[in-house]
Amino acid sequence: MIKPQLRTLSVNLPAVAQSPSRLTSVLKFIVVTYLLGVLVLSMEQFLPLPQNLGLVDFWNLLFIPICWLYLIRIRQAIRFPFALGMWFILLGSFLGTFISTNPLASIIFITKEVYLYIWFVTVTAVFTSLEPGLVRRLLLVWAAVAVLHGILLIAEFVSPNFYTFMISFLGRFGTIDLRYFPRSTGLFQNPVWAALFELMGFVPLLLVGLRRELTLLLGMVLLLSILATASLGALTSLLGAIVVAVIILLLMGSHLKFFAWLAAVVTLAAGLFFFTISQFPDVLANLVTLTTDRAAHTVEERLFLWAGGTEILFSSQSILGVGPNNYRDFLENKTLHNDTLEFSVERGVIGLLGLALLAGEALSSAVKILLKQIKSGDKALPSGVIFLAMLFGVLLESNAHQIFHFRTVWLGMALLEATLFKMMSPPIETAAKRVGLWSERLKSPQKSSPLTDRRDPPAVEAE
Question: Which of 78, 147, 204, 246 would be 139's cystine partner, CB 3.0–4.6 Å?
């Protein structure tokens, strides 16, 4: 009788469960340092660099190869979120480039978007590979950077002398657009990007899980910093995101006591704020001028810009678009200040479809996180609610400005996708147990399995 030959299959534990080598540890330290640099450099946009790039982009180009080497070393699974949407966006962009009046501008624009997506995929994979404690420390740094920059914005708004000093100081190294004075800009070229950076600062602040009192205090700093920029789009987006978060939490039937506490504290803080600002008539008059008095002019300007884009939208050019970065208003030489309309006009129907697919996948990811938390009963830190509110706020902001290329928005979406991937993946301990169980089954011929069940053939067949 012929004895079957059993082959021992080598089964390795996941790379994350193994003790890392010295090179892997060094690479991990470099990658974490890189992420810290991204968080700090994301608030700088005043240096005059080519093609509207910032220091953070050169930092990315320097460290992205190291990140990929680290991901290869630890055998991290690479996912490509929003791949279908980005494919349609790039396809629509290329088709629009063929009929654009300035193809070179479109090609440069497309190249920057390819780089942006590669960076997004890289950061998503890196976030996925890091331990929760390390990710929390990075979120703390992100929140701290947003709060510190918010304090700078508030100081510029309250003290015109300090603002003048900052303009003089930063003007030695970069370009400061004085058209926006006295709206605070901080380390950005204009107040719109400064406000959006502060708006995205709510994401790490809420996800990091600090004490409620401290979170509320730091949140007030971020809110005041948005008011200092007088960005109506960011303020509207924040209010809309809050409404969405409150509605979802009420539907979940959780945090009711927290809402009562929050309402009392916010009412007290609002009363204290209005009393304090009333003691400084100049500051109050400046705030009213830059917000409520400016609202009518802003709405009128937006409607004028959108009317020009709508004319192209309902013409034959809307099928393929006029090409990325090729539309400017013929009177004011401005963009459309609306991502949806910009994609429709410059990238045509295909590009707009890609944007819709990308937004739909992002919303689907946030909903999956929310449903997973509801199913598991984990309501202590409602990450799904935070991500849904973030996406709704970004959606509102994109209707007032073109923010598709803003790095901090993509950083928030990378965190969203990394969170979803970790939630849908089994824990390391569970995976290790499964691998060990299968290893024992493969080594034990007595136990039946599709791979090891090798019975002796009948004597007739053996002969």
Answer: 204
Phi and psi at residue 137, in whole multiples of 5°? -65, -40
Token pair listed for 86:
């980005």
Whole-angstrom Cα distance, residue 186 to residue 156? 8
Provide the residue-wise pLDDT of the chain in tens; the chain has 463 residues: 444 443 433 344 444 445 668 888 999 999 999 999 999 998 877 676 777 788 888 899 999 999 999 999 999 989 999 999 999 999 999 999 988 888 898 999 999 999 999 999 999 999 999 999 999 999 999 999 999 999 999 999 888 889 888 888 887 877 777 777 788 888 888 899 999 999 999 999 999 988 888 988 899 899 999 988 988 889 899 999 988 888 888 887 766 666 676 677 677 777 777 777 777 777 777 777 777 767 777 888 888 888 888 888 777 777 888 889 888 877 777 888 889 999 999 999 999 999 999 999 999 999 999 998 888 776 666 888 999 999 999 999 999 888 998 999 999 999 999 999 988 876 554 544 554 555 565 555 554 444 444 444 444 443 3
Please answer whether residues 357 and 84 qualify as being in contact, where contact means their C-beta atoms are separated by less than 8 angstroms.
Answer: yes
The residue behind tokens 């006295």 is: 182
**CA separation for the pair 460, 428 (Å, rounded):** 49
In the DSSP assignment, the letter for residue 182 is T
Question: How do the residues of the chain divide into helix, strand and coil, expressed in percent and rounded to 5?
Answer: 70, 0, 30
**Total domain count for the chain?**
1
CA distance 179 to 176: 9
Is there a contact between 163 and 181 (Cβ–Cβ < 8 Å)? yes
Q: Residue 218 falls within a domain, yes or no?
A: yes
Closest C-alpha among 152, 147, 282, 337 to residue 228:
152
Residue 65 lies in a domain: yes
Q: Please give the DSSP secondary-structure letter assigned to residue 338.
A: -
Write out the residue range of the structural domain in which residue 283 sits: 17-427
Q: Is residue 447 part of a domain?
A: no
